[in-house]
Each structure stands twice: as structure tokens, then as C-alpha cells.
Design a protein that fits this description.
Layout lengths: L1 H12 L2 H54 L8 E7 L2 E14 L13 E14 L11 E14 L5
Antiparallel strand pairs: 1-2, 2-3, 3-4
């Protein structure tokens, strides 16, 4: 009798283990593909963030280089253009206005021939991720900084 019971149990399964095994493989495959897609998306996001950070830093560098040159002109704009690696930098310093130094701002005061010359520096930079890629993944940044220079009162600085 025992022999008959064992043979009946084997006959009733009819491939259930195979079906369960295939279902588990499908679930594991779907999870693996989903994980790979998530990792690929996160890598693309990190690359985009790095490109944007490179453009930000390049714009800061352009602004710093333009200010360090000290070429401030009250009669026209001063433009500095340069390329560093894959970053194109363009900085412009524009004269805004001149004002007399206020009474108590400095010990010299108004009427002493001292003026404040107001400028606006703008730096634009672009970060190219891959040369010839068409630009869809490139990044750009614009930084603006206002400043003034104190100097003798005259029509041109």
C-alpha cells in the first residue's frame, strides 16, 4: 500500500514545481531589470549635476578673472573671453554710474574730488559634456556681481 500512495503523490504534481520555479525567475528578472534602470537613471542624474556644477564654477572663474584684471573703463564695456578645457567663458564689465562720496562715509567727504564708480560684471559660461554631441546635455551658468571703485572724480577712469 505504501508504494501506491507515493506514486499517486508524484502523479498529482504534474509540473507544479516547474511553474513555481519559472514564476520566481520572472519575479527576480523583473526586479533585476528595475534595479538596473534605476542605477542608470541615477548615473545620468549625477552626470547632469556634475556638468551643471562645472558650468557654475566656470562662470565664477570668469567673473574672478575679469575682476582681477582691473580693467575698469567708464567709457565702454570691457570684455574677457577665454576657453578652458571644455568651458567657454565670457565676462563683461559694464559701467553703470558714478556718485560723489557721501559726507560721512569717508573722512574726505563730498567736494574732495573723490567719486565712487559703479560697475556691473556679468560672466557667462558653458560646460560641454561631449564635443559634437549636439548640446542636449550641456549646461550653462550666468553670474552677475555689482561693485564700485573709489577714485578721483574725473570724466574717465
Amino acid at each position: 500500500m505504501k508504494m501506491k500512495i507515493q506514486s499517486l503523490n508524484r502523479g498529482n504534481q504534474k509540473g507544479a514545481a516547474l511553474v513555481v520555479g519559472l514564476m520566481l525567475l520572472v519575479v527576480i528578472t523583473v526586479l533585476a531589470v528595475s534595479g538596473m534602470n534605476t542605477a542608470t537613471t541615477e548615473l545620468a542624474m549625477a552626470r547632469n549635476d556634475q556638468t551643471a556644477e562645472n558650468a557654475f564654477q566656470a562662470a565664477e572663474t570668469g567673473l574672478e578673472n575679469a575682476l582681477n584684471q582691473g580693467r575698469f573703463n567708464t567709457l565702454g564695456n570691457t570684455t574677457l573671453t577665454q576657453t578652458v578645457s571644455y568651458h567657454d567663458l565670457s565676462a563683461t564689465i559694464r559701467f553703470e554710474d558714478s556718485t560723489l562720496v557721501p559726507d560721512r562715509a569717508f573722512s574726505l567727504g563730498v567736494g574732495s574730488g573723490i567719486a565712487a564708480y559703479h560697475f556691473l560684471a556679468t560672466s557667462q559660461a558653458s560646460s560641454v559634456r561631449a564635443v559634437g554631441s549636439g548640446g542636449e546635455r550641456d549646461a550653462g551658468a550666468v553670474h552677475t556681481q555689482a561693485f564700485y571703485v573709489v577714485g578721483p572724480e574725473s570724466s574717465a577712469l
